[in-house]
């Protein structure tokens, strides 16, 4: 545990634990010797270098990792980017479905000029 209560898996004797594969690496290393993943990340508020296994910054206490909701929103926007034709088609299909439901459920006297579906 560090001085502000964050739990970072860093040992002065053994090294830094990789967040991806869990192997121990040297303190001076920037990437994992086993899988190549970066070992440290910088705080977005104060810029202090923290191990990737830490949940919050050792200097200011800010949460280091983005939320699951943020990752979900980015994944959805990445998937739907450039698919504007599909979005327009989906909106049109929903509009037609709503119109058909309203027409079917409404009394025929409300739409005298439309042909009735028998």
Shape: rod-shaped
Describe the strand arrangement of the main beta sheet, using strand numbers.
Answer: 1-2-3
Low-confidence stretches: 1-7
The major pleated sheet works out as: 3 strands, antiparallel
How much is the average pLDDT? 78
Succession of helices and strands: EEEEEHH
Number of domains: 2
> How many strand units?
5
What percentage of the residues does DSSP assign to strands (E)? 5-15%
Distance between the termini: 74 Å
SSE class: alpha+beta
Residues in helices, as a percent range: 25-40%
Cα-atom Rg, whole angstroms? 28 Å
Give structural notes.
This protein folds into 2 domains: 1-65, no CATH class; 72-110. Strand 1 and strand 2 (15-17) form a beta hairpin. Residues 1-7 have low confidence and may be disordered. The protein has 2 helices and 5 strands, in the order βββββαα. The protein is of the alpha+beta class. Helix content is 30%, strand content 11%. The strands form 2 sheets. A 3-stranded antiparallel beta sheet has the order 1-2-3, with no helix packed on it. Strands 4-5 form a two-stranded antiparallel sheet.
């Amino acid at each position: 545990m560090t001085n502000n209560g964050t739990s970072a898996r860093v040992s002065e004797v053994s090294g830094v634990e990789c967040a991806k594969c869990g192997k121990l690496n040297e303190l001076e290393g920037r990437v994992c010797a086993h899988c190549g993943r970066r070992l440290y990340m910088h705080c977005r508020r104060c810029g202090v270098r923290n191990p990737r296994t830490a949940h919050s910054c050792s200097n200011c206490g800010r949460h280091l990792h983005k939320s699951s909701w943020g990752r979900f929103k980015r994944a959805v926007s990445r998937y739907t980017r450039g698919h504007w034709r599909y979005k327009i088609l989906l909106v049109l299909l929903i509009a037609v479905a709503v119109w058909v439901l309203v027409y079917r459920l409404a009394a025929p006297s409300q739409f005298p000029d439309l042909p009735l579906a028998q």
